[in-house]
Specification:
Layout (H helix, E strand, L loop, with lengths): L1 H15 L2 H14 L1 H8 L9 E7 L5 H15 L13 E6 L6 H14 L4 E5 L15 E5 L6 H21 L7 H4 L12 E2 L6 E2 L6 H22 L2 H11 L2 H6 L4 H33 L11 H25 L3 H20 L1 H6 L4 H8 L4 H9 L8 H28 L9 H10 L1
Helix pairs in contact: 1-11, 8-11, 8-12, 8-16, 9-12, 11-12, 12-16, 12-17, 15-16, 16-17, 17-18
């Protein structure tokens, strides 16, 4: 036992004493939230160059509206009201008379102007847009630009044109235009939580308004934290064992400890690294959100489950990666087997979106009960406002415990044989035979 503790200490200190560990603790959350962080940092840096959009209005009723609405938008949204600084591009509408004799030629000429940079885009409005039924082909509105599908001006055009068309249709139906604003008044459906009652005083607590961020961010943070801890404590075992084997360090250590003790020391050393990292993140996160007065949004009931699942996950995967590393003879073998070995860690990443959309679906439920995916997906579902039925975390815990025991048992048998094998590329069939026969 003393020698196992010495290996654990050696593995732990070799990781946490490095600058890379400290840098990784800082960079890992930044990398995981890089997209949101980049959007926030770049939110004030937008293209402010004015955009000229040509309008070919074959209906004859919308061009003037677009000019007027563009002028209103430019007056309100282009310049900062306090500093006078230009913060958005102005929309400049150029009305082009429809060419009834050669409509395709006109579209081609306008396309060439967009290519040359004379125009940002152009819009062709069909003559039947006011009454589309029965003449859908002539009721089309086409927006032409170099990146039309992702151009935000297309969204502005869409709203402005359809707003005006609704006014025209109401007028034809005999409804006065002055009443149109109330007809189109949009009343949003507010997302509210549930009311509750204090068990001691009986006071009723009013339901509070919630947001998508409040609902999804805690779950996403715990999901990615589990991923980071596996990458920090389990995955490195694959390459660490290969390095020690190729440098003959493993043979020296086997003269002092048994293969199982050697593997246990490395796996538990990696677990200690993960516990250190998760402790830093969890304690730091709790203090940060408490300081901001957002402690009500911290899923405290999930945190014990997170720690338990993380321990089992790191032990299970750490043992598996140690066994795979023992079967490799050089770093090239480790590189070839690295991606397939990462699939149990990567596949839950692909399931995040469907699980967040429908956490109670059969797919989300059974995926979170599949032992290799349980630690990440079950924690994700538990941290969502809907929660999960009380039996599912326990069922998932039983499954991951059994799988971890089997993984450690099989990995120990592979590790014992693989450390002494040299010059052979790892093969799945060979490792299965080692696990069965020992």
């Amino acid at each position: 036992m003393k020698r196992v503790l010495q290996i654990i200490k050696r593995e732990y200190l070799a990781s946490v004493r490095t600058k890379g560990f400290i840098i990784g603790l800082v960079l890992a959350p930044l990398v995981m939230s890089g997209s949101a962080l980049a959007m926030w940092l770049l939110s004030g840096h937008v293209d402010t160059e004015d955009k000229t959009i040509a309008v070919v209005d074959r209906s004859g009723i919308l061009a003037d509206t677009l000019v007027r609405k563009a002028e209103e938008r430019n007056a309100e949204a282009v310049y900062d009201s306090l500093t006078g600084e230009k913060k958005r591009p102005a929309y400049l509408i150029e009305i082009v008379r429809p060419d009834g004799a050669d409509p395709e030629g006109q579209t081609l000429r306008l396309s060439d102007r967009v290519r040359r940079g004379d125009l940002h885009a152009f819009v062709v409005i069909g003559e039947a847009v006011l009454h589309p039924p029965g003449d859908e082909e002539n009721a089309r509105i086409s927006y032409h630009a170099k990146a039309a599908a992702i151009d935000e001006i297309r969204g502005w055009m869409n709203g402005t044109i359809n707003w005006r068309l609704r006014h025209w249709r109401l007028s034809e139906a005999g409804i006065d235009g002055s009443d149109a604003e109330e007809v189109f008044w949009w009343v949003p459906v507010d997302p509210m939580g549930l009311m509750s009652q204090d068990t001691e005083t009986g006071a009723v607590k009013t339901a509070e308004r919630t947001t998508e961020a409040q609902a999804l961010i805690p779950a996403a943070v715990l999901f990615f934290l589990m991923f980071i801890m596996v990458m920090m404590g389990a995955v490195p075992q694959l390459y660490a064992v290969v390095e020690e084997k190729s440098q003959r360090i493993a043979e020296v250590l086997l003269g002092l400890v048994t293969p199982l003790q050697f593997m246990a020391g490395k796996v538990l050393g990696g677990l200690a690294v993960s516990l250190t990292g998760s402790g830093v993140y969890l304690i730091g996160g709790i203090l940060f959100f408490t300081t901001l007065g957002l402690d009500d949004h911290i899923p405290f009931h999930v945190l014990p489950w997170f720690v338990i699942y993380m321990v089992l996950n790191v032990v299970m995967l750490g043992a598996a990666y140690s066994a795979l590393g023992s079967a490799c003879s050089d770093p090239k073998d480790a590189q070839s087997i690295g991606f397939p070995a990462m699939l149990p860690v990567l596949i839950p990443m692909f399931l995040v979106a469907p699980v967040l959309r429908q956490p109670e679906s059969a797919v989300a439920t059974w995926a979170s009960l599949f032992p290799p995916f349980t630690p990440t997906l079950m924690v994700l579902r538990m941290a969502l406002p809907q929660g999960v039925p009380a039996w599912q975390p326990w069922a998932g815990l039983a499954g991951i415990c059994l799988t971890a025991v089997l993984a450690v048992w099989a990995a120990g048998r592979v590790f014992r044989v693989g450390l002494l094998v040299q010059g052979k590329a790892p093969k799945l069939g060979t490792m299965i035979r080692w696990a069965i026969s020992g």
